[in-house]
Amino acid sequence: MKYWRARPAADLERRWALPALVAALVALIVASLAIGRYPLALATIVDTLLGRGDGSQSQATAETILLLVRLPRVATAVMVGAGLSLAGAAFQTVFRNPMASPSLLGVSAGAGFGASLALLFHLPTLAVEGAAFIGGLAAVAASFLAASSVRGNSLITLILCGMVMSALFQAMISLVKYVADPVDTLATITFWLMGSLAKANAADAATVAAPVLLGGATLFALRWRISLLALGEHEAAALGADVARLRTIVILCATAMTAATVCVAGIVGWVGLLVPHIARMLFGMEPGRAMIATATLGALFVLGVDDVARSASLIEIPLGVMTAVIGAPFFLFLVIKARNEQWS
Amino acid sequence: MVVTAAIEIVDLCFRRAAGREFVLDSISLTARAGELLVLLGPNGAGKSTLVHCLLGLATPEQGHVRALGDDLRGFGRREIAKRIGYVPQAGHSAFAFTVQQMVLMGRTAHIDGVGSPSPQDHEITQRAMIDMGVDHLRTKPFTQISGGEQQLALIARAVAQDTPIIVMDEPTSSLDLGNQGRVLTLMKKLAAAGKTVVMTTHLPDQAFNLGARVALLRSGRLVAEGAAAEVCDRDSMSRLYGAPMLRLAAEDAKGVVAFVPDLD
Amino acid sequence: MSSHLLRIFCFALTLLASAVAGEGRTIVDMDGRSVTLPEKISRIVTVGPVPVLNGFLFAFGRQQSIANGLPRELARKFQFVFAPDLAKRPIVQSSASGLAVEDIIALRPDLVLTMDRAATDKLGSLGLPAVLLKWREPDDIKRLMGLLGDILDQKNIAADYVRYFDATLARIAATLGPVAESKRPRVLYVNYRRLTQPHRIAEWWIAHAGGRSLTDDGRDEESITFSLEQLIAWDPQVLIVADRGELDLVMAEPRLRDVAAVRDKRVHVAPAGAHLWANRTIEQPLTILWAASILHPETFSRELLESEMRSFYDRFFHISLSKEQLDEILAGSSGR
């Protein structure tokens, strides 16, 4: 079955394309520090970052805004974007399915359930995040357990079990919402699930950075062998890859990364599905390049979208809503483009 | 002069689960270095299963598979991959790796767990592609080349893997006669270079063309083994496929004999 | 001639009989629906924002008439102080299962008060006398009390409340005097957990208390959401939160430490009596007075506030509150 034509656009194969992309991310990070509802002059930003200051009240506020509000939020957005895209790319490879997303095995639904439950019992933020992480891992573990009880234990079985677990945990989320007090708790849960970086602070940035950096580093180190998994179990094994071990490592890393992003940002969709495709289309399939491109594009996307979400108007638009609104039509465009070009 | 067999299959028995019937029943085969071995048999005879056992992808219930004198059971995947290369049927891939990336994957067994291909690996890949005649396609997505070109690329991958044994599973099924010829010629060259080449096929005439030894497999049992001219005659072929066959031979066919179903 | 008299007498008797039989009267609720109600209302069920509706009924002295209890998630201590019998009443709604319609019917209410159309339609279609009350604009409370006065045949109390409402507002305005824009502190009523200002009515009472609400943008929606950065950019001089849990959150938040309200420790928890004073409640005139006392403490003292509270609860709820109870109300709820 012919699938995505990942013919790299000729000019992006050139050596400078990837460094240019990374440079673009750095530029956007710097620009994002200058964007926001609170007016901060560029000179003030530079002074604050360099530790120079006049000790005035406005300087103190500028510091607070820059270092405690914007910087953590920008860092979190970058980590969320990179983490989700890498997890999505990893899942697409392992499951040999370009339609796979990080939530394939139920991690998003599980994390959402954990968080909803914690919010229902009015637990503090730290507990909510912890519950989300545990919930995500539990859902994937449940998928594995269910799949292992089925004889044959193929990938398809795992995907089916993942779908079942996803649906199950979604149903449980609905149950929690049903029981929640409509005046306050229900709104909090709904808002949380929609995905938002509104209250991202330094602790959040650290929480998501650790798994994303660790998981990403692991996936990068093993990138060559992981790409073999795309060929299928038998071919990969015959080429010398330890398929079972690789699969476990990849799924573990991807799950941890995704669960971490759900913890701090709620459920943000479409990034894990869309960005790997774009990265492959533009930068080709070479494992190292593709991974760096994926992570960078993911970070650019989420950071860009979040910049718009927090400064476009007085009202904050939830991140998950925006990624869906932008992601879904763009994906449709990609599908149409791919289909048309196959038939020409 | 003692010649160690490159491949030794001793009393191989395989079944999917205890209590079910044997898919492979007491198969014993050997193949030496530089030899071509063709596995013939009807659908469901167990050819693919035998291939999988040979590659260590399936564990037999009884019996041994030895490559270069060592039992496969004691080896990890990487060790096996250094000894035996696999050429699957050219088929579906959901991801459009370039031909070069595909062939480069053949070097995996020689690359460390967390490593990347070295310049030497790239060189070997290049040479394999040139030898197989697919170098001009190196930047093309694998999914966009013809079936024949894909098969050649997969063989190039096995060549890049640089193993003394190569196992091919129906390498010419989806190829036209021209490409069939090319693939068979390559197989002769590989054997001539000292490799052991095992292949499964539906077409007995390929065994004749290759001058190969033949093993007949039927219902999981080894029915006959030997030179093509000795083992394949009209009766044995008809028995093998469970249908009347016609034997086609010609004076100027250079000893190549073909079999076609007798429709009357 | 005697036959005429007899006929008139019979006719009068019939009229009297039909009146006594309580065929009922028809009123028009605040949604324009005609509802038939019995002459005498003795059993009332409040559905939806139960504490708010109860508060209206407390003002009419109708604590005993309330037939339903308070759902757990909406219960407040002072509801039971103002109407001790409420603790014994059956609860007929919960967020888990919505309205327990059969239980409501079993209570045989003469009147069902709601504040949302869906509930009114649902209960009305089952033959229950459901009346919709609306309170969107600040002045709606006066129409609402007037309607209740008609329904409960206590027009004098309704009129008294309206008078009190207008008089209190006028007194506060007079005491405040004309306040220059620069003297109006920047005020933000915020739900910090979700970064929203949840109730439009707050814009109104903040303004009447001599403050300037930072979220007063003439919007139509009930609530407004904003970013943390926007909050800091506004630099409110006074923050009002709904419970003490929120107060702790705000004071402990390192990113807010440079905000004027946090620096000057002008973060206040809205009081909670029959209901949270910051939201729509019968106690709204007290809300404005309290807000004025925290925005302009030099003009409105705490003693003034406490004395007005005593007077309000005595006049409308017929209860004398102790100093401890007043303090408790003013301290606000603890939150989670």
Structure explained in plain terms:
The complex is a heterotrimer of chains A (344), B (264) and C (336). Chain A has 14 helices and no strands. With 344 residues, chain A is mainly alpha-helical. Chain A has one domain: ABC transporter involved in vitamin B12 uptake, BtuC (Orthogonal Bundle), CATH 1.10.3470.10. The N terminus of chain A is likely disordered. Chain B is α/β, with parallel strands linked by helices and 264 residues long. Chain B has a domain of 178 residues: P-loop containing nucleotide triphosphate hydrolases (Rossmann fold), CATH 3.40.50.300. In chain B, 33% of the residues lie in helices and 25% in strands. In chain B, the strands form 3 sheets. Chain B has a 6-stranded mixed sheet, with helices on both faces. Chain B has a 4-stranded antiparallel sheet with strand order 2-1-4-5, with helices on one face. The termini of chain B are far apart. Chain C folds into 2 domains: 135 residues, 3-Layer(aba) Sandwich (Rossmann fold); 151 residues, Nitrogenase molybdenum iron protein domain (Rossmann fold), CATH 3.40.50.1980. In chain C, strands 10-8-12-13 form a 4-stranded parallel sheet, with helices on both faces. In chain C, strands 3-6-7 form a 3-stranded parallel sheet. A two-stranded antiparallel ribbon of chain C has the order 1-2. In chain C, a hairpin with a 5-residue loop joins strand 1 and strand 2. Chain C is globular and about 90 Å long.
